[in-house]
């Protein structure tokens, strides 16, 4: 059973290869994030400067982008 944490807002700083992104969180931390499967499936584009919602992994070093705001 998965623990669902509250999504965190952030801003895309840099686009990296393989649909990875460097994201600055509202708390000031930077993390690596990848695009969620549904966003890939529907070809939703995310560019530097976009505000996004992230689900963070337990170690807080990585996350998954689940929504563009």
How does this structure look, described?
This protein is mainly beta and 69 residues long. The protein has one domain: Beta Barrel (OB fold (Dihydrolipoamide Acetyltransferase, E2P)). Helices cover 7% and strands 49% of the residues. The chain has one helix at residues 37-41, and strands spanning 8-16, 20-25, 30-35, 51-56, 62-68. The termini are far apart. The model has no long low-confidence stretch (mean pLDDT 90).
Properties at a glance:
69 residues; globular; OB fold (Dihydrolipoamide Acetyltransferase, E2P); mainly beta
Topology:
Elements: E1 8-16, E2 20-25, E3 30-35, H1 37-41, E4 51-56, E5 62-68
Parallel strand pairs: 3-5
Antiparallel strand pairs: 1-2, 1-4, 2-3, 4-5
Q: Into which percentage range does the β-strand content fall?
A: over 45%
Rounded radius of gyration (Å): 11 Å
Q: Secondary-structure element order, as H and E?
A: EEEHEE
- Strand tally, please? 5
> What is the fourth-level CATH superfamily?
Nucleic acid-binding proteins
The fold-level CATH name is OB fold (Dihydrolipoamide Acetyltransferase, E2P)
Q: How much is the average pLDDT? A: 90
Overall body shape: globular
The CATH architecture term is Beta Barrel
What is the level 1 CATH name?
Mainly Beta
Query: What characterizes the major β-sheet?
Result: 5 strands, mixed, barrel
Structural class: mainly beta
